[in-house]
Design goal:
The protein has three domains: 83 residues, Arc Repressor Mutant, subunit A (Orthogonal Bundle); 97 residues, Periplasmic binding protein-like II (D-Maltodextrin-Binding Protein, domain 2, 3-Layer(aba) Sandwich), CATH 3.40.190; 106 residues, D-Maltodextrin-Binding Protein, domain 2. The longest helix has 24 residues. The radius of gyration is 27 Å and the shape is elongated. By secondary structure, the chain is of the alpha/beta class.
Length: 302
């Protein structure tokens, strides 16, 4: 970047943030005239007005708003680069934004974050739980945990694959004692199914691994269709039927004997678990430390 361009960006951003050339000049310890000339020089170079000037306040034009957001990202990247170069002490510190899937984040990620925060008291962790797609750059996310949806990532993102889900058929011991334990697929399909219902109202089909190792899907009639995985686990534990769920979701129920896995030879691989992060942030001690902890996640548990 040309040195003069950066010099003009800072007065422009400061003027927007402070609301006037005078306030910006006081903050930057220069004259108001210098700030005004700098912004005018920037507008002349871009060939577009960035600010609407009145006697009382400054207002961004449409072009100015777009350029302002771009300048903020540039200055943030410069700050991050300086942090990397200055991070010889290797002590993780500062705000760290992490995005995780709702249920997986609560059950599997959160238990690892508690000791991480205890070990690194200078880190300010901001954690969002959401099953929607998160744009790391638009939302200022340092690291994201994704289940599925990580194909064809841009070169600007780092990526670490941590395995794939194991999708298990399961039911409660009480249900199996009453309805019988299926020994093959045809018997399984006669059982009362508890399915996951998608947002559009469709149900997620059951997936099987065939004898030749390929995956096949079957749409099955159901007793219940639930749009929440926690509710699905509750229904299966209550003995209302059979469900197919990832083993990470029912790990504790399996360990306590509240659920049993049925026909394990039919278990297919589900979605993949991936860590993603902006490559330019990887050398930051806080990001590097978090990636080291999250790389120990095991989505195929138990």
């Amino acid at each position: 970047m040309h040195d003069q361009r950066l010099k003009d960006i800072i007065p422009f951003v400061t003027s927007v943030e402070r609301g006037s050339f005078t306030a910006a000049a006081e903050h930057l310890h220069v004259t108001g005239s210098a700030v005004s000339k700098s912004v005018s020089r920037l507008e002349a170079r871009l060939g577009s007005p960035l600010l609407e000037r009145t006697t009382r306040r400054l207002a961004l034009t449409d072009a100015g708003q777009a350029y302002y957001q771009t300048c903020l990202r540039i200055l943030e990247e410069l700050a991050e680069a300086e942090s990397v170069l200055a991070a010889h002490r290797t002590i993780p510190s500062g705000r760290l934004r992490l995005a995780v899937p709702s249920t997986y984040g609560r059950l599997c990620v959160m238990p690892r974050l508690i000791p991480f925060c205890q070990q690194h008291p200078e880190v300010e962790l901001s954690l969002s739980f959401s099953d929607r797609f998160v744009d790391l750059f638009e939302e200022g996310i340092d690291v994201a945990v994704r289940i599925g949806g990580s194909d064809d990532l841009p070169a600007s993102l780092g990526c670490r694959h941590l395995g794939r889900e194991v999708m298990a058929f399961c039911a409660s011991p009480a249900y199996l004692a009453e309805a019988g334990k299926p020994e093959h697929v045809d018997e399984l399909l006669q059982h009362r199914a508890i399915l996951y219902e998608r947002v559009d109202g469709s149900t997620k089909p059951w997936q099987f691994t065939t004898d030749d190792g390929h995956a096949s899907w079957r749409t099955v009639p159901y007793r219940m269709a639930l749009g929440d995985v926690d509710a699905q686990v509750q229904a299966v534990c209550a003995g209302l039927g059979v469900a197919q769920m990832p083993t990470w979701l029912i790990h504790e129920q399996l360990k306590r004997g509240e659920l049993e896995i049925i026909l394990p030879q039919l278990q297919p691989a589900g979605l993949g678990l991936t860590l993603v992060w902006p490559r330019r942030k990887q050398l930051l001690p806080k990001v590097d430390a978090l990636l080291a902890v999250l790389s120990e996640l095991n989505i195929a548990a138990p």
